[in-house]
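Components:
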Amino acid sequence: MANRTIAPKIIDPVEFDLHLKPYEKKTLDNGIEVYAIDAGAEEVLQIEWVFFAGNWYEQQNMIAATTNFLLKNGTASKTAFQISEHFEYYGAYLNRGCYNETSTITLHCLNKHIEELLPVVQELITEATFPEDELKLYKQNNKQRLSVNLKKCDFVANRHIDEYLFGIDHPYGKYSSAEAYDAVDRDQLKAFYDQFYRHGKCILFVAGKIPANLFAQLNKYFGSLPLNNKALPEVTHPIVQSPNIGSPIRLSNDPDGVQGAVRMARPFPNRHHPDFLNVQVLNTLFGGFFGSRLMNNIREDKGYTYGIHSYLQNHIHSSAWMITTEAGKDVCDATVKEVYKEMKKLREKSVDDEELLLVKNFMMGSILGDLDGPFHIIGRWKNIILNDLDESYFYNSIRAIKSITPAEIQELANKYLQPKDFYELVVV
Amino acid sequence: MIQFDRFSLANGLRVLVHEDHSTPMAVVNVLYDVGARDESESKTGFAHLFEHLMFGGSVNVPNYDDPLQLAGGENNAFTTNDLTNYYCQLPAQNIETAFWLESDRMLSLAFSKKSLEVQRKVVCEEFKEHYINKPYGDVWFKMRELAYKVHPYKWQTIGKELSHIENAKIEDVKNFFFKHYRPSNAILVVAGDVTTAQVTELAEKWFGDIPAGEKYERNLPQEPKQTEPRRLEVKANVPLDAFYKCWHVGSRLDSTYYAMDLITEILGGGGSSRLYQALVKEKKLFSNIDCYHFGSTDAGLLAIEGKLVKGVKLQDAEKAVEEELTKIKNEKVSESELEKVKNKTESAIAFEDMSVMNRASSIAMYELLGDAQLMNTELSKYQQVTVAEIQKLSNEIFDENNSNTLYYYAN
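Structure:
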């Protein structure tokens, strides 16, 4: 009979020796780098074309996002409907995404259909036409969607907190508006497309059970395009922080609202900063997982919220440390107070070994689980490569988890978890 | 083809093992055959509240999460109208921790008053976050009540109203547990870097001595056939008018399920689907439109919903939807259009099967439907659907007397 009062023995995951499966790297005839992870049992592929065509490079708000969205809404020989139908007929998913520095086209498909799909992806990169009526419809429908989102306190709070951190003109701080949509002009899209897609800089990430001829196929369709010929323009964007740091900001968005969106954030350097990896451990302890201090106090003890989280924003140039939750309207202020209390505890009292071991084991187990499967592995590599890091970043992050001490955690809390450095926003 | 082994313990617990030695992880998935449909109408939202309480400590283990996280594991759970599913993933070396935690909370909860008090509040905040403090958040409260008059699908998993959750008593919690959370009412799936021999031994050791309890016999009133159209209009503080319409469809095990699923794909799945192309792109009546079904175990609903372009009248939008439905009722879809949605289904299944966690929960769900082996015959059932069946079933479903329509007006 099992003794239920004693926990079964475990191997502490902090002792695990974790490895990041290396990629295979090839270069197409025109210099496009292809990073590949060949793994998995299913006959499926994920191919991602990453362009340096994010909003970092646009001259006017929404140009990068609109260009990216409309890539699949018309080419010289196909309508938007025909393009969608082609990918869907082969059971493929063609997605696109626009981020700050980069934008992407992502294809998920069964291996057996790859040869039918690559030529049409090529068409999107070389012959997109941005039809006027597609642009008009895009503007109308996005303005409508925006009007719905603006009713949501979390959506509104996210916009404001980013604006405080980086400034309304910075790529990380700016946001959409009906006026910005209205101002988008087709010629701007065509010019942006020509510079940052047709003649842009592109990197490929491939993962799945990779067929032997895939590289030859990629070279055939993408290796002779006029990509990666010109250097990217040197663009810098000054960060303009709002002066209202360290003082409470309360905004009213919906008079009938029953919850408030709480956002607390401080500027934080990017991944190249020597504190970045250690702070990831402190963040996990503070608000980065279900067993965190914030979750235990504010959800599991007080019941103020369905969930509270903290994280470091995923930006290349400069990051921010963010705490987010939606809490009952009448307990928002109490929630903010408890967050500060948890910061204070971390500053004043060093974490005990037992709790720190739990955090370390959790983080290691979570990385082990996340290294499972080709799509996850390529995701890690993509992050490393686009942030201009190398595999030592992965091994240093493991080392940070294994070796950080309670004293170092406390020192970091004193350095970074100071209320005066945080923006404090509640939107009801 | 997903391989698995299956055995039962003397107390009625069904155990399924899916070995996959390409992953260093193990997944332990426990499904309980209880959902919101098993609640009484005066105490709705209880199955879901109960899911929260399952993390509030069990008879011998004061805290579920800490030991799991210490072992490098993560977990979560969800409740639907039909079932409640708990799953955790952890390094395979530490799998016994999951057996210890899951078996102790099947043996008995601690029934802590503090946990009930806190989780009542947490669930009320969840209710507010997703259903009150969101534009259009109340739609399916209204639609379910319109479409179901008898069957407990007439309320949502989260519950009918906040007060039902606020009034939950510790006695209700105890009764619910011993009625529904017995081994004979559960399915345990263990997947990943494990062997059947190892799982057999661990299952006997940790779950073998849990009393069988009484088998819960479900006896729900089935929804009578709807015989006339039902309509409802509401006004709310939202920026855009919206259109919702739903029709009754068969149960999950009904032979028409596969054709019904493909109909929703033809009408509303993706950029080349009929409703999107005709009503968003060509006629510009809707800014978005979707068609989907609920996939529920008992007879379910197929729904079409969309937000209208400003200035468009709801009557005109509905008329245009009806024109598309008339088309699919009167004309056979082309073979290539049917082939398209079958191909989409094939690849959706392949991508879903990539994660061992998904495979584990699929095995549990199909076992609940009657036989885990069903998951290996799904694709061929989709392949067998014909254009004639699509047309016949469209005529059965899209009958005005079978429909429930909601006009959601902006203030």
